[in-house]
Amino acid sequence: MLIRASIGTLAAIGEVDTKTLVRPGVAYLLQYSDRGCLGGCYFCAQSSQSIASKDFLSRVVWPAVSLEDVAPKLARVFSRACVQSVIKPDFIAELHEVVRTLSHYGLKISLSTTPIPDEDLKLFKQEGVDYLGVGLDAATPSIATRVNKPYPYGVYLDFISKAVSVFGRGRVVVHLIVGLGETLKEITETIKQVYSVGGAVSLFAFTPVKGTSAESWPRPSLRYYRIVQIINYAVASGLPVEELVDLNRMCVHEDKLSSLSEVTMALLTSGCPMCNRPYYTESPKGEPYNFPTTDLIPPIRDLLRKLSCDVS
Ligand code: SF4
What we know:
312 residues; alpha/beta; binds iron/sulfur cluster
């Protein structure tokens, strides 16, 4: 069976001779469809409605490879695989086969999918999926409509709650794209809502991809993204968000931080265990939105000074 693997994943198992600056923490796989996904999300290169190359997802190349060939190699290098689905005829049945194959080699599996029936969620759990990713993407229902998500917002929210009842609290990771036109207050409320039903949030910076309907939309500012990261970390850790962050002025009250390590943790890629998605949404040349490893984080005091309410 064909499957796509991120170029960094293939480099880690020696399938391609490409130098990568940071090794992926997880084997990143993407369900194969030559015509792309039947969903029409405006920002997504995999959408069949976009003219973007189907070898891309975000700014990363995902060559097609044989699942049977790469599965044992992946298991020698990685402990977890992330399988991202696309919508196509019989995609759920194919996903079960993918999951069973990877499980056979001992890989733990994070499955990222659009809403699917409850029975399939339970079966995926039996087959070896222990974390579920959900592409809610938009911070509000109106943004979901504006970016042409395939299902109504409420369907995603119901799905998140059902998935938590199957996989457990903290094991349903909701993908949120920062910078689709939401306000800081809106994304803060959505992050709180996700954690309140037992989910967790993984942040992605909006990335304009050539050939998609959103190719000319602006990227979020780093300052805005950092503030959202700190909010996400605060909500996940039970810290008082409104005391820590001034949502109107978009700045941080440093004196409310108990330690600088809290900021370090906030800036790392959030998501399933070991998920670091190196350079998924940015070039390695600049400061990344999500830091894939603590080694790359600049001196935290300097970074925090730029975000402090005392100087802004
Ligand atoms: S958080 Fe990372 S590993 Fe988990 S589903 Fe999302 S991309 Fe995959």
